[in-house]
Amino acid sequence: MQTVLVTGGGGYLGSVLAHRLLGAGYRVAVLDSLVFGGQALLPLLAQANFRFIPGDVRDRACLAGALDGATAVVHLAAIVGDPACAAAPETAIAVNRDASLGLLESAAKAGIGRLIFASTCSNYGKMADTSVLATEEHELRPVSLYAETKVAVERELLSGRFAALCPTVLRFATLYGLSPRMRFDLTVNQFAAEMQTGGKLTVFGEQFWRPYVHVRDAAEAIQRCLEAPGGTVGGQVFNVGATSQNLRKSDIVALVQQRLRTPAEITRVAKAEDPRDYRVAFDKIAGTLGFAPRNTVASGIDEVVSAFETGIFPASILQAQGTAR
């Protein structure tokens, strides 16, 4: 039985992944500082194969203890997203870049045999021509601190120094969907929630492209990498998503409108320039790992709207979280 250490396992993706891996028969250890609370992990505490380590990835001693007994690492811990990194740049660099590089050293020293690093399609930045889909070999043009830190770790991880870790880089499309640690600062979730609860939405730069992937599909992609032969995934980069789910904000607004019972009031704010505009190809992960997302943005919108309609989420929950304009 593999023991997988998930850093940031109490977060939006990490909590979904921890639930999934435990259900698949793995031992799971989660290292998390619980900045946003630990409620997402409560259902796991009674499970014999689950271990929680409270701590910060910047703490090398804590990290060494968390790595003890692990056979694989999924590194998710990060200050996630452009707004969060811009708000606290020094912390973002310390966590996303410096602590991640320290994790690679510690994992190699601990003899970890498989390491998966969560990166982002935002690394492709502003593409010169969005009619051409970005493959894993496409030029990286990070235009945000968040993407810059991810690119820096990718390059070190794939330099050859850490080949013993059998490293895999997963560049995730923008996530959406329900999670035990719910986020409403992600575009699809935010648009669905605001249009459902308030009947209106302000959209900035609706014409720019992004790819999207459901959080449960992202967790499945990680599991597939863990279970693939090392020779198949070691030293590889995979975009995670589906080509059909490259969408503009205007497309997402239209999908939400189709789901709602009453029309929402949309205010559109034109932006002549956006630092990120990219469309991504996902053929490699489909061909290599047989991965195809089970969800679409339309189905993700439906589950978010339904959660508000049934009262699982109160409208007031949006006041406590930021937005993704």
What does this structure look like?
With 325 residues, the chain is α/β, with parallel strands linked by helices. The chain has two domains: 3-175 and 214-240, Rossmann fold (3-Layer(aba) Sandwich), CATH 3.40.50.720; 177-211 and 245-274 and 294-320, UDP-galactose 4-epimerase, domain 1 (Alpha-Beta Complex). The protein is 37% helix and 18% strand. It is built from eleven helices and twelve strands. A seven-stranded parallel sheet has the order 3-2-1-4-5-6-10, with helices on both faces. α5 links the parallel β5 and β6 (167-172). α1 (12-23) packs across α7 (215-227) and α4 packs parallel to α5. The protein is globular, with a radius of gyration of 19 Å. The relative contact order is 0.14.
Structural key phrases:
325 residues; Rossmann fold; 7-stranded parallel β-sheet; 3-stranded mixed β-sheet; 11 helices
Give a short summary of the structure.
This protein has 325 residues and is an alpha/beta fold. 37% of the residues lie in helices and 18% in strands.
